[in-house]
Design brief:
The complex is a heterodimer of chains A (about 650) and B (about 250).
Chain A: H1 2-8, H2 19-48, H3 59-71, H4 81-108, H5 116-147, H6 156-183, H7 187-190, H8 194-203, H9 209-233, H10 241-251, H11 265-271, H12 284-291, H13 298-302, H14 304-307, H15 314-326, H16 338-342, H17 349-353, H18 360-373, H19 380-391, E1 422-424, H20 428-432, H21 434-449, E2 454-455, H22 466-471, H23 474-490, E3 495-498, H24 501-510, E4 519-522, H25 523-532, E5 546-548, H26 552-555, H27 562-568, H28 606-615, E6 621-624, H29 627-638, E7 647-650, H30 651-658
Helix pairs in contact in A: 2-9, 2-12, 3-10, 4-5, 5-6, 6-8, 6-9, 10-12, 21-30, 25-27, 28-29
Chain B: E1 7-13, E2 16-18, E3 31-33, H1 35-49, E4 53-62, H2 67-76, E5 80-85, H3 92-106, E6 110-114, H4 125-133, E7 137-147, E8 152-159, E9 162-169, E10 172-176, H5 188-193, E11 199-202, H6 204-207, H7 235-244
Parallel strand pairs in B: 1-4, 1-6, 4-5, 5-11, 6-10, 7-10
Antiparallel strand pairs in B: 2-3, 7-8, 8-9
Helix pairs in contact in B: 3-4
The chains are: A mainly alpha (about 650), B alpha/beta (about 250).
Chain lengths: ~650, ~250
């Protein structure tokens, strides 16, 4: 008996709605979708004002990213209320949308399968996800009303959206309950529409069938009008990201995180334009990316410039540019201030956080290029670039002094050891900065001790051009890149090892743009290999607490977080303590993006914040693996109470100290 | 002097010098614009950007090789440049006389130039030029403001005793101190764009100036290297050494 009932289980779709009302309904929905499409086309037109191209063309990349960042929401997950409520809203909305589409296909399609077990499971599923959806709305309202995270931003339209969404969910359940009430569904079928049934048996008990029918009509219309209002207002509220987010996720060009976009000299000569001075000079994809922002504020929460009170919020850069896309005004000076652009350390934390893959650093880099081209850079960073041009290093030291650090070590050069395995790319910092020179010494000694065949370029080495590219002088960078690629080719270099994560990123991720293909290793990975092979020993723990600061361009940009810890001997050192922000989620030291050469007031030093974080672990040694981090963290510790007792060391120095005296 | 809202023309003489950052490797290093002159160029640009001047003309003396520094000045933003084709190492007085001829030809309302060049540290040309022209001068200036419809300028001078503020009638000579501004950076595309700007070449004969050297350089030598210091173990040891070895106590 029950089985038969189940087989026949189905429901009416427009049972209570007169044909003329159905016509009105469809016209209304069509009109609201029309408004949505019309508005969306207006956005499309804005994007089309940008430079053609810039889109990822490989559909396999689209599919992979849509699965990873769209469906699996990889960037959204974290332990926070915001992430939880988004999961509820996302899954609820997705299932309800699929459900409604299926209803159309199942009920009105050529073959009606909207009955039986399919129907029952359908009802149950939609009810469960409907609850998830409503719960998500309530949690979002709670977060907005009581937690009020500043980086999220608050606008009356957000309440409109949440109100409409919650009302949609609640009226949906009410319509279901009233329908079941007046159609007097058999209980064993009604149980599957669990929420509707619960509403029916608790709140609608004793209601007349005819009253239920009238109330159903009213509730149904309310629900329908809400649907129409929802569609029509999508383009003016945060919900737009449901459309633009996946578009940007799929279409953002695939490029290593640490590689900036090369400019073509011929193009610049032709157009006379360098970088972005007006909003239309961004690519179409970049303009689309501005519209994909839903203002969640994750970028701002991760930004070291925001955290130290500098006039930069990556989110505000995006929303300000988005505003400019639809309005008239100057980009530079009016919409975006030069101080905002210079404040960026290009640590990529915002880029890593963004759930819809917006490229904040690319936007900032494009605008910086314009500033530099227009002569808007002066002071110490300008001198650093001048020195890269004149002396091939930002320190302005004669390049003939490149081997000053190696005095007395008998370091092999490309002349004395032309058949080397590894080219030891020292980098300008470790060549000229007195503190970082010790890192070069330690690394060379360890390579020798580990029996590695290596050589240095000496005066033939020159700046990779990293600071030039990040500050915004693309062609000074390209000059350096071309010169270096020629030098490396001349010496038949295949493998490179360097103690500088910035050289590492540029050599590995950016030189292929200029025909330089090498097997590039950061010294941490080579040293970890030597430790693994037993050629070097991590020795015994000093017994003192130690922590490690992950350099952005090593951990976040290049994904290398294990080798450094192997060299420190984390597994055997019970005294090792991680900072709260570590690994790929590390926090910048403040030197990236050319910031090394900018003046900074003590209160705004990123290194100070980071030093406090390191001190809080109780560590007496702060290890790092980047000459710039070393410099900044030494300063940061010196300026932080209690920091004077903390040793700041490169992992190579640490490892050298632990080798048994031979 | 025109009674306009802006100074019509600023003349900026500049010198090409070996890169002062290059240190020991100076013989192999590139030339750059004398840093004080670069500050003068920057100041002229900022005055023009404020709408207080209409044209900036740069002038330098040298062989065609100095065109590289002229391009850099043009790339910074000066409107046009004149090169006086003379490869000789000239005395400050000769330079001042050549510049006087050019000032008479161009009739600028203000001449802004570095207080000295970092290669010979003479610190004379600005003052001599003012003397030859009979113009007022403000030297070692760290701030420039124009007054009264651009007929006068108020200049803040960096002196040993502190700051001195002087008002001078235009036309005048202003020489720049280090603290006046921070010159802008010139990028490669900026240099390329500057290729289209005109460089006029003149000779001393065309200017009607005959110059001959008044001084002769006998020799030059590098400063002696400082001997390495020693590290003392204690305050007592330091006191003893100061008394017995250095004999300063």
């Amino acid at each position: 008996m029950i089985a038969i009932a189940m087989d026949n289980a189905t429901r009416e779709v427009f049972g209570n709605i007169a044909p003329w009302m159905q016509v009105v309904f469809f016209v209304m929905i069509a009109a609201s979708i029309g408004v949505l499409v019309w508005q969306f086309v207006a956005h499309l037109r804005l994007w089309r004002k940008g430079q053609p191209g810039g889109f990822e063309r490989d559909w396999r990349v689209w599919v992979r990213r849509l699965l990873e960042y769209g469906l699996a929401q990889k960037r959204v997950h974290k332990k926070s209320l915001g992430a939880l409520l988004h999961l509820l809203l996302f899954s609820g909305f997705l299932v309800l949308t699929i459900g409604t589409t299926l209803l159309g296909i199942a009920h009105d399609g050529p073959y009606n399968f909207h009955h039986g077990w399919y129907y029952l499971i359908y009802e149950l599923t939609l009810d469960i996800f409907g609850v998830a959806f409503c719960l998500g709305c309530v949690l979002a309202m709670y977060r907005r009303a009581f937690q009020r995270p500043a980086s999220l931003g608050h606008n009356p339209r957000d309440w409109w959206l949440l109100g409409v969404l919650l009302s949609l969910g609640l009226t949906g359940f009410l319509v279901e309950a009233l329908r079941m009430h007046y159609t007097q569904v058999q209980p064993e079928i009604a149980h599957w529409s669990v929420v509707g049934w619960l509403v029916d048996v608790t709140m609608l008990r004793g209601l007349e069938v005819d009253s239920a029918r009238s109330m159903h009509l009213a509730a149904w219309w309310l629900h329908a009008i809400l649907v129409a209002a929802f569609f029509a207002t999508i383009p003016v509220n945060r919900f737009l990201h449901v459309i633009t987010g996946p578009l940007n996720i799929a279409l953002r060009p695939e490029r290593p995180m640490g590689a900036l976009v090369p400019l073509q000299m011929e193009e610049v000569e032709q157009t006379g334009l360098i970088g972005v001075s007006e909003i239309e000079q961004f690519t179409r994809q970049q303009l689309l990316s501005l519209d994909s922002c839903m203002e969640c504020g994750r970028c701002e929460d991760a930004c070291p410039a925001t955290a130290t009170g500098k006039p930069l919020s990556p989110k505000k850069v995006v929303t300000d540019l988005r505003w400019l896309m639809g309005h008239s005004g100057e980009l530079h000076g009016e919409t975006i201030q030069a101080e905002t652009l210079w404040a960026c350390t290009m640590c990529q934390a915002c880029v890593q956080e963004c759930p819809v893959l917006i490229g904040h650093v690319d936007l900032i880099s494009d605008m910086r290029r314009h500033l530099v081209g227009e002569g808007k850079l002066s002071g110490p960073p300008a001198r650093a670039l001048q020195q890269i041009g004149n002396q091939s290093n930002p320190y302005g030291r004669p390049n003939s002094d490149r081997l000053a650090w190696a005095k007395g070590l008998g370091v092999p050069t490309v002349e004395t050891n032309p058949h080397f395995d590894y080219l030891f790319w020292v980098g300008c910092a470790a060549s000229f900065d007195p503190r970082a020179q010790k890192v070069a010494r330690a690394t060379a000694q360890l390579l020798k001790e580990g029996g590695v065949s290596f050589a240095v370029l000496g005066p033939e080495e020159s700046c990779t051009g990293d600071p030039a590219r990040r500050i915004g002088d693309e062609f000074l960078f390209q000059q350096r890149a071309q010169t270096n690629v020629e030098t490396l080719t001349r010496h038949k270099v295949k493998k490179i090892v360097t103690p500088c994560p910035h050289c590492y990123n540029t050599l590995k991720n950016e030189y292929p743009q200029f025909g330089g293909q090498y097997e590039v290793q950061h010294h941490s990975t080579l040293l970890a290999e030597l430790v693994g092979e037993g050629r070097l020993s991590t020795g015994t723990s000093t017994g003192e607490p130690i922590t490690f600061h992950d350099p952005c361009y090593l951990a976040r940009v290049s994904g290398e977080v294990d080798a450094t810890r192997t060299v420190i001997g984390v597994n055997t050192d019970a005294q090792f303590r991680e900072m709260p922000r570590h690994g790929k989620k590390t926090f910048c030291c403040g030197a990236g993006g050319g910031r090394m050469w900018f003046d900074e007031s003590p209160a705004q030093r990123v290194s100070g914040l980071r030093a406090q974080e390191a001190l809080a672990t109780g560590a007496r040694t702060l290890a790092t693996a980047c000459p710039f981090c070393l410099n900044m963290m030494t300063d940061g510790m010196a300026g932080t109470p209690g920091g004077e007792n903390v040793k700041v060391l490169d992992i190579a120095e640490l490892l050298l100290n632990r080798q048994k005296p031979s | 002097m025109t009674q306009g809202q802006s100074v019509e023309k600023i003349l900026v003489p500049f010198k090409s010098v070996p890169d002062p950052y290059a240190g020991a490797a100076a013989s192999t290093s590139k030339s750059v614009i004398n840093p004080f002159d670069e500050i003068a160029i920057e100041e002229a640009l900022q005055i023009r950007e404020r709408g207080e001047a209409t044209e900036i003309v740069g002038v330098t003396i040298g062989a065609p090789a100095v065109d590289e520094q002229i391009r850099a000045a043009l790339a910074m933003g000066i409107d046009r440049a004149v090169r006086i084709d003379d490869a000789r190492a000239l005395d400050p007085y000769a330079v001042a006389r050549i510049l006087r001829a050019l000032v008479e030809k161009e009739s600028p309302q203000v001449v802004i130039m570095g207080k000295q060049a970092v290669d010979d540290d003479s610190n004379q040309v600005g003052q001599m030029l003012a003397g030859l022209l009979g113009w007022p001068q403000a030297t070692f200036v760290s701030k420039i403001e124009f007054l009264e419809n651009k007929t006068r300028a108020r200049c803040t001078r960096e002196t040993d005793g502190g700051l001195e503020i002087v008002a001078i009638n235009l036309p005048a000579i202003i020489t720049t101190d280090l603290r006046l501004n921070e010159p802008r950076y010139v990028s490669l595309p900026g240099l390329m764009k500057a290729r289209r700007k005109p460089i006029e070449t003149l000779t001393c004969e065309q200017l009607g100036v005959t110059v001959r050297p008044m001084t002769t350089t006998l020799s030059t030598s590098s400063p002696t290297r400082r001997a390495a210091g020693t590290r003392v173990g204690s305050v007592e040891e330091l006191m003893a050494k100061l008394k017995q070895e250095a004999k300063v106590l």
